[in-house]
């Protein structure tokens, strides 16, 4: 019987790629800038030559460069791990993007083993492993087509019958049919034993932490149309070409903007015209930065597990790498106070829901003290202009802490300033001159604006679901965005009045 043919309209033509479903996604392992393993699933992977054996892999390049692409172009090597259906749930979770400082290895259930010829780990329990060295790459539309030589391969013999025919009855293959988004995450469909199986994969990590303190305020959704919600913001792409942008900061809200790229390892300089150039190579994976009064950048290097100093000429040195003989876990976010005290969070990116995170206080004389501890993945922080309060995002607990500070810069008191609803949680924080706090709400695609009492004033859309950090610069709010790998400019308008202005030079992080 003939099948009907319904043509795709010209604007829907891009959907033709979905006709390749079911796909057979692979898990690609690569080596991060700091030597750790990185993993992500990709369906567009195919053999392209038998003798010699070669494969191709197509990775998204525009609007953002995949973290795996950055790793492969730098290291020239990767492993194609062919999973069975049993690894589907972790495969989906490996496709999610997490804030800078989170290593997927720590939150996925995979186990790893060494490869034969490469410095890249393979994933145990897969049915076959192809060790690949990059041979060539081509830009193809919005993807980069990587062409690689297979330099070694291995397989799990129990998963194959004679002639390398997969034993699909004992070990069903991973066959992906597609996905739809839900408010909490994504629902992926797989085909197994001739049936469709739906797999609900929430975005957030289950956080076991009970909330310390009873005064938590829940930042309920704003009263749209009500008097409170008189904020508007136009989001426009300002600078592009990043993989994992974070830590925007400038000198007093003027001059150039500095942005770190976690996957690449660099600090990049953005001019007011939006031109992006490399400024410094940190040699690791920088998660946050702020500018000191001397014009030097302080950079939180999660990969090097150190706080770094970057001179105005771009020279990188280690400022501190541990406390009382113990190495840091992974410095993540930072701020100076007016006296030159430097506060930074230290979080274990391999165990982001463990309450092992701390905030340290590094004095101008080089001594380091513990400022706060017992936190589950503390990320970014900011200090009010009067030096009275320090705000801290505890990202996976989806809340913001407020500490009041004494003259020595120690915490006089601690309270939960706000719990945020939806998405994953707050990451970057900054303050305006009225004491309103702006939080980049990762996973919700908004900047949450909270008044000094912690009540939600507005949620300003950022143009992408994954805002990571923010800073006032040249009179506007600039937001680093992980979904599109860009810096967005938010023109904020309060009921026709003037937009907010930054709190102080010390908070323009
Ligand atoms: C089943 C499946 C197949 C995918 N195939 C591709 C692909 O072929 N190319 C691609 O660029 N992204 C693909 N993705 C999306 C990436 O996995 C996703 O963007 C991920 O965040 C990239 O990770 P990385 O930035 O850590 O490298 C796929 C995702 C899923 C769930």
Descriptive report:
There is one protein chain. 4% of the residues lie in helices and 49% in strands. The chain is mainly beta and 509 residues long. It has two domains: 16-202, Electron Transport, Fmn-binding Protein, Chain A (Pnp Oxidase, Chain A, Roll), CATH 2.30.110.10; 218-507, TolB, C-terminal domain (Neuraminidase, 6 Propeller), CATH 2.120.10. The strands form eleven sheets. A seven-stranded antiparallel sheet has the order 2-1-5-8-9-4-3. Strands 15-34-33-32-31 form a five-stranded mixed sheet, with no helix packed on it. The chain binds flavin mononucleotide (FMN). Flavin mononucleotide is lined by residues 25, 40-44, 58-60, 66-68, 92, 95, 97, 176.
Q: What's this entry about, in short?
A:
The chain has about 500 residues and is mostly beta strands.
- What is the highest CATH level, the class of the largest domain? Mainly Beta
CATH superfamily of the largest domain: TolB, C-terminal domain
Shape: globular
What is the helix tally?
Answer: 3
Low-confidence stretches: 210-216, 504-509
- Heterogens: flavin mononucleotide
| Beta-strand residue percentage | over 45%
Domains, number: 2
What's the helical proportion of residues?
Answer: under 10%
Radius of gyration: 24 Å
CATH topology of the largest domain: Neuraminidase
CATH architecture of the largest domain: 6 Propeller
Strand order of the biggest β-sheet: 2-1-5-8-9-4-3
Mean pLDDT rating? 91
């Amino acid at each position: 019987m003939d099948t009907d043919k319904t043509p795709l309209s010209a604007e829907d033509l891009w959907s033709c790629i979905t006709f390749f479903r079911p796909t057979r996604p692979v898990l690609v392992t690569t080596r991060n800038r700091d030597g750790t393993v990185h993993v992500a699933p990709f369906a567009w992977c195919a053999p392209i030559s038998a003798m010699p054996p070669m494969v191709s892999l197509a990775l998204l390049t525009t609007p953002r460069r995949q973290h795996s692409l950055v790793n492969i172009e730098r290291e020239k090597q990767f492993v194609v791990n062919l999973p069975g259906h049993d690894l589907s749930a972790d495969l989906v979770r490996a496709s999610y993007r997490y804030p800078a400082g989170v290593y997927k290895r720590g939150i996925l259930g995979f186990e790893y083993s060494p490869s034969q010829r490469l410095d890249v780990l393979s994933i145990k329990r897969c049915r076959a492993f192809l060790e690949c060295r990059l041979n060539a790459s081509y830009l193809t539309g919005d993807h980069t087509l990587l062409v690689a030589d297979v330099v070694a391969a291995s397989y799990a013999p129990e998963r194959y019958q004679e002639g390398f025919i997969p034993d699909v009855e004992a070990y069903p293959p991973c066959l992906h049919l597609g996905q739809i988004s839900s408010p909490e995450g994504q629902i992926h469909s797989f085909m197994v034993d001739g049936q469709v199986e739906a797999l609900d994969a929430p975005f957030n990590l289950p956080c076991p932490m009970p909330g310390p303190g009873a005064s938590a305020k829940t930042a309920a959704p704003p009263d749209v149309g009500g008097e409170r919600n008189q904020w508007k913001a136009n989001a426009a792409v300002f600078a592009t070409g990043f993989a994992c942008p974070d830590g925007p900061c400038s000198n007093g809200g003027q001059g150039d903007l500095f942005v770190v790229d976690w996957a690449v390892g660099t600090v990049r300089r953005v001019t007011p015209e939006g031109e992006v150039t490399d400024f410094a190579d940190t040699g690791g994976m920088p998660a946050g930065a702020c500018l000191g009064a001397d014009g030097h950048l302080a950079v939180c290097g999660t990969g090097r597990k150190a706080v770094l100093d970057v001179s105005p000429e771009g020279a990188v040195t280690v400022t501190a790498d541990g406390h009382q003989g113990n190495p840091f876990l992974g410095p993540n976010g930072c701020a100076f106070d007016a006296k030159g005290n430097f506060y930074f969070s230290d979080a274990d990116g391999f165990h982001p829901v463990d309450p092992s995170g701390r905030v340290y206080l590094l004095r101008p004389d080089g001594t380091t003290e513990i400022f706060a501890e017992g936190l589950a993945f503390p990320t970014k922080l900011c200090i009010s202009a009067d030096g009275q309060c320090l705000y801290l995002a505890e990202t996976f607990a989806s809340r913001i802490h407020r500490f009041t500070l004494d003259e020595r810069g120690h915490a006089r008191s601690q309270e939960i300033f706000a719990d945020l609803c939806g998405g994953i949680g707050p990451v970057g924080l900054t303050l305006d001159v009225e004491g309103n706090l702006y939080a980049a709400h990762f996973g919700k695609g908004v900047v949450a604006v909270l008044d000094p009492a912690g009540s939600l004033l507005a949620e300003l859309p950022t143009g992408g679901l994954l805002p990571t950090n923010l800073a006032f610069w040249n009179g506007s709010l600039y937001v680093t965005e992980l979904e599109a790998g860009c810096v967005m400019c938010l023109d904020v308008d309060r009921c026709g009045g003037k937009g907010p202005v930054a709190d102080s030079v010390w908070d323009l992080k």
